[in-house]
Design a protein that fits this description.
This is Tc3 transposase DNA binding domain-containing protein. The chain is mainly α. About 45% of the residues lie in helices and about 5% in strands. The chain has a two-stranded antiparallel sheet.
Length: about 130
């Protein structure tokens, strides 16, 4: 991953320097940090267009647009990566039940616990 440094000036003739390590990769999806998302919102709120913000920050116009749209609608900038990945097979109730099974017999093997869990439950789990 390449690391880029950027300089933000607040206006002509002003020497404000803001150095930030940006995640720059070509053709790959990279989550923006909270700081980078804040920079996108700040640039747009300062009056820069999507294209100007993209050029200044080094992100695509689509990324700039999406982050700012999310901020306008929800007043927050969060990554959607939390919803990625395999969904849990066991919900909170199932986890409590499994905890009780384990506490009932602390020396039980994984196979025994799985068998007991599957005997009574609606959702079945298995071990490969």
């Amino acid at each position: 991953m390449a690391v880029a440094s950027m300089h933000l000036g607040c206006g002509p003739g002003q020497d404000n320097l803001l150095t930030s390590k940006l995640n720059v990769t070509m053709g790959k999806k990279v989550d923006l940090s909270h700081f980078e998302r804040g920079m996108v919102v700040g640039a747009r709120r300062a009056g820069l267009s999507n294209s100007q913000s993209a050029q200044l920050l080094g992100f695509s116009r689509t990324t700039i647009s999406g982050v700012y749209k999310e901020w306008c609608e929800k007043r927050k900038t969060s990554s959607m990566r939390q919803s990625c990945g395999r969904k849990c097979l066991v919900d909170a109730r199932g986890q409590r039940r499994m905890g009780r099974l384990i506490q009932a017999d602390r020396k039980a093997t994984l196979t025994e616990i799985t068998t007991r869990y599957n005997r009574d439950g609606r959702v079945r789990i298995w071990r490969k």
